[in-house]
Amino acid sequence: MNDTPTIPPRRPLTLRDVSEASGVSEMTVSRVLRNRGDVSAATRDKVLDAAKQLGYVPNKIAGALASSRVNLVAVIIPSLSNMVFPEVLAGVAEALDGTELQPVVGVTHYSPEQEEKVLYEMLSWRPSGVIIAGIEHSEQSRQMMRATDVPVVEIMDVDGDPVDAVVGISHRRAGRKMAEAILKQGFENIGFLGTQMPLDHRARKRFEGFTETLAKAGLEVMDQEFYSGGSALLKGREMTKAILDRSPDIDFLYYSNDLIGAGGLLYCTEQGFDIPGRLGLAGFNGVELLQGLPRKLATMDTERQAIGREAARIVAARAGGAPGGGERIEIEPKVTLGDTLRRYKP
Amino acid sequence: MNDTPTIPPRRPLTLRDVSEASGVSEMTVSRVLRNRGDVSAATRDKVLDAAKQLGYVPNKIAGALASSRVNLVAVIIPSLSNMVFPEVLAGVAEALDGTELQPVVGVTHYSPEQEEKVLYEMLSWRPSGVIIAGIEHSEQSRQMMRATDVPVVEIMDVDGDPVDAVVGISHRRAGRKMAEAILKQGFENIGFLGTQMPLDHRARKRFEGFTETLAKAGLEVMDQEFYSGGSALLKGREMTKAILDRSPDIDFLYYSNDLIGAGGLLYCTEQGFDIPGRLGLAGFNGVELLQGLPRKLATMDTERQAIGREAARIVAARAGGAPGGGERIEIEPKVTLGDTLRRYKP
DNA sequence: CTGAAAGCGCTAACAC
DNA sequence: GTGTTAGCGCTTTCAG
């Protein structure tokens, strides 16, 4: 069972060690280990045996330098605390799963300076691709992405001028669509609740699209409430109470994410409000969590995992040598009315 | 403002390009760019100017090969869909933030074979450290981790025989403690709800510790229910209904995670059960979400972020040249009684 | 303070 | 099928 392999070596093993142990040239060892070119079954076995016996692990650093191929994909996201980004990452990992490619994560904390640093760091590894959240970047960052020859996929947002490929939704359009859905149900006194984050361009665009459509109907947002940090569910409750106490005439609350929306929904349910008769609610993202709530919050699914998957596919295709550049995949988010937005039966 | 930098080059730039552009030797350019050794302010400026002008991005592959230093930290986790792992990752990223180190993520989908592959792949990059979830691995994997000279930190679970360093909690002990807390409140007819996942060793150990303590009190788990896939919150509701319909005498439900626990809590609240008078509930993990629920679910905080942080610190310290090996950090999880476990006022 | 030479461990491109 | 020869782009080391 146990071959009691030779004493663990001080010096990391190299191809040369395998070559010597197997009596096969380094080059052929390399071929065997990479499954490249034709090698006779006999030598192949000799090499594989020797490699396993020694516990050889190839050095990809050297391999990458020699071949100028790096099977790393840089994924640059603002945060890991907001579940939407791990979801994107999961999509990336899923699409990369069958390939040789590996994701490397960089977190920017919504800071353009940090993004610049992370991007620079990532590019210095000459990855097979860069997947980066958002379409707004510092001029420096854009410059780097333009200058590099690695494929760049900007994700989540398509409203703007991508450097190369984009996969995402139009947040402006999403805001408009939600406003239309709300107006259609006859709501008129609308409050907005969101995050206090000047650099969240996607939320901003949604809000812009939203107010734009309201304006066309001669309406404007009646009251607003913002938060930062803390448990989103809890904040949702608190903000909802605050805004309703302040503006009791409100008949609809539009939340910039589902978690605060869910908090609001729980609060309103407890207060015994007639929903959506007296008060309608909607969130944004379509998170799985909503499935388990007492009532289904209206929302708009943004398919984060699909976005990650598609972005990774673009990178994988190009890493595989396929030509490309400037791909554009716009995902159409759909409104889910749930139990908190539909007042009129269809 | 804009220097209109020279035409973006076809061939990626090298040190040599910067050297030629600045009239400084490659070696000195390298020194400047890495902030190593003494360089006169004059040449330093010349170099920095040329580099920026050209838009030079160093090639870490080559650097790593030459210096045999790789500022990557491998983080190997079973999944990204369960928020606990992104949380660990966030802790790692946080601790690494000030350093030169970068996390690289590998996902195993709870499969030992996949773990082996990912580990091999990661080790072939000769990272500065490996942070890997769990303490149970295939013999092959353990072998690789033993053989390598990169620091290995096994995280989340300390019950077992670590290869090198460990940071985590004792799940067996966690199970026992929860059982004690439950018994202390006088509950006797206890049901267990968990995930259908034979390879989730941590859940298994918790369950073992739990039943062990019940056994000492002459009790055993009255009924059980398992799920896999889907929205945990929703599953929590469904399972709770199922187990209570089947075993109406149950007076306590122990959930293997907070999400299903929260689902159960919502269900029970809606049913109007007297909680915790008639029925007590407890989850596991201490997720932030619980803060916003109508009632606070009893749970046990596992401090995932702290675990990630500490693991990353160990790696960073050793990458910085500090001696080490075999570090062990056991985090003591604390029971939070919340509103669903305390029957007797203190 | 600065430079020249010699690799790091592997693979591309040819020979045989 | 298999081996040989040059590097990949950087840093280490050692001279000046």
From TrEMBL, chains A, B:
TM annotation in the entry: none
Transmembrane listed as a keyword: no
GO MF term (any one): DNA-binding transcription factor activity
Superkingdom in the source lineage: Bacteria
UniProt xrefs under SUPFAM superfamilies: lambda repressor-like DNA-binding domains (SSF47413), Periplasmic binding protein-like I (SSF53822)
One Pfam family linked to the record: LacI
Keyword field: DNA-binding, Transcription, Transcription regulation
Name of the protein in its database record: Transcriptional regulator, LacI family
